[in-house]
Amino acid sequence: MAFNELRAITTFIQAAQLGSLRQAAAAQAITPQAASQALTQLESHLGVRLFHRTTRRLSLTEEGSQFLQAAQPGLATLQRALHGARRGREEIAGPLRIVAPRATMLQILWPVLDAFCRAHPQIEPDVQLDDRVGNWVEDRVDIGFRVGTPPPEGLIARRLMPVQLVVCAAPSYLERFGTPTSIDDLAHHRCSCFRHPTTGKVMPWEFKVGDDIVSRAVAPALCTNDIELEAHAVVAGQAIGQLVGATAAPLVRSGALVPVLTQHVTDHLGLYVYYGSRVAQPARVRAFIDLAVERLTDNEEFVLQPRELAPRASRKSRVAPVPPRKKMTDR
C-alpha cells in the first residue's frame, strides 16, 4: 500500500480510545494533519467510514466499532512483539550462535566462552566447529572466528592475534635424528602434514625467508586432518611437525617440544573475529565480541616470544639417517 498501515491503524485506535484525533497525534509525536491524513487513507482503503466527525466531537460508526474490536487484540500482540524484540536486544540472554575452526576452539576460544557463560548464565551457546566461512545468512551466525586471512567482503572482521607457524620436534626425536638447520634439511626428516578437513588437500609448510613467505611441500611420514593428533605424534617423537603457535607455545614452554628453524617462523596469518553488522547487534553479541577482543587481542599466551625462539647452544645440529617410514612406530 502507499500508506503506512500500522501507523494508520494505531492512529485510529488511539483516536477511538482518547476521543480526539489531536490527542492521538500528540501520543504518536506526529502533526494533527498527518493523523487526519492517515485516518482518511485508512477509511479509503477499507471503503467504510470509521468515525462521525465534527469540529468538536469524534464518535465511532458501527463499522468503526466493529473494526476497533477486531483490530485492538492484533495491535496489542504486535506491540508486545516489538517490545520483546527491543528488550531482547538489550538483554544478555538467549541463543548465541558461534562458528569457529576446530584448530582454535578448545585451546583459545573455550576459556572465553566459559567465562562469558559464567557471567551470563541465561546465554544459550550454539557452537559449530567448521574450518570454512559458510553462508552467513543461511547459517544464522552471530559471531565467527577464522584462522588465516580476513573473511570475504560483506563481513566485518577484526584481527585478534598473529598465528605463528613453528617447526617443532620432541627432544627424543632430535636426539635420534638430529636437528635441521635449513629448510632443505627437512628432506632428510620424518615430517608430519596436515590434511585440510574441507578440501582434503595436504597443506604445504610455510616459511619466512627474508621478506617473503615461501611454501614448501614436504613428504609426509604422518598425515592427519586433526591438529591434536598431529601434536601428540610430534610430542611422541614420531615426526617433526609445523604447528600453529597456540598449539606449540605450551608444549615448548613445558619442554615437551623444541622449536627449530626459528629464523623461518612466520606469523603472516591471523586469528580473526567476524560478524555481519556494526549496528543493530543484540547486547549478547556485542558483549561476547567485546570479551573476545579484551581476552585475545595480542595475547602472549598463544604466541611464542623471540626469547623463546632463540637458538639453544645445547641443541645438536646434525642430520642422522631416518628409518623407513613404514616403521614409524619402531623406535
Explain briefly what this protein structure is.
By secondary structure, the chain is an alpha/beta fold.
Explained architecture:
With 331 residues, the chain is of the alpha/beta class. It has three domains: 5-90, Arc Repressor Mutant, subunit A (Orthogonal Bundle), CATH 1.10.10; 94-160 and 271-301, Periplasmic binding protein-like II (D-Maltodextrin-Binding Protein, domain 2), CATH 3.40.190; 164-268 and 302-327, 3-Layer(aba) Sandwich (D-Maltodextrin-Binding Protein, domain 2), CATH 3.40.190.10. The protein is built from nine helices and 13 strands. The protein has helices at residues 5-18, 21-28, 32-46, 62-90, 102-119, 171-177, 227-235, 245-254, 283-296, and strands at residues 51-53, 58-60, 94-100, 123-129, 143-148, 156-169, 191-194, 205-209, 212-216, 220-224, 241-244, 258-260, 266-275. The strands form four sheets. Strands 3, 4, 5, 6, 11, 12 and 13 form a seven-stranded mixed sheet that branches. β3, α5 and β4 form a beta-alpha-beta unit. The longest helix is centred in the N-terminal third of the chain and has 29 residues, at 62-90. Residues 313-331 have low confidence and may be disordered.
